[in-house]
Amino acid sequence: MGAHTSGRPHETRGILDAVRRIVRELHESSRAAEKQVGLSISYERSGTGSTVNGTASIHVYRVLQEALNNVSRHAGVQEAWVRLMYKPDALVLEIEDHGKGIDTQKNERGIGLVAMRERAELISGHIEYLQPNGSGMLVRMSAPREKVEAHGG
User: Fold this and answer.
1) What is the DSSP letter of 12?
2) I need a surface site. Which of 18, 42, 55, 132 has the fewest CB within 10 A?
3) Strand 2-4 to strand 126-130: parallel, antiparallel, or no bridges (unpaired)?
4) CATH number of the structural domain spanning residue 129
5) Residues 127, 66: contact at Cβ < 8 Å?
6) Beta bridge partners of 139
């Protein structure tokens, strides 16, 4: 996993730790399952944000976990990109792959996609399922910073 982080060392808690934990767990479970998937994950972080803990961190973690599980199960690729962006008014999490993609019109009712949408809504956010180049998948969760930081306790 390639990691690029910016900001102060104390900001490596909360979501950043959750991202690292799920990436590590995904790699460990892949190895334990006789190299079933072998997913390589690149990670980028941009912007400066406060520590996000508590329920907000759990919801972001679960969205990330489900999106990466979908890549490993359905995309037919061995590489994914995770981006965590602290914008002035929002926290944005993106998970991208260049695999098969899905028909978002037909599949937005799948259990995992619905669960991701519901978790984002719990922190006043939303989820987009995009195919930027006509293939692959980009899952983008965006939540207002004041709501994410308010749910940190």
Assistant:
1) G
2) 132
3) unpaired
4) 3.30.565.10
5) no
6) 95, 129
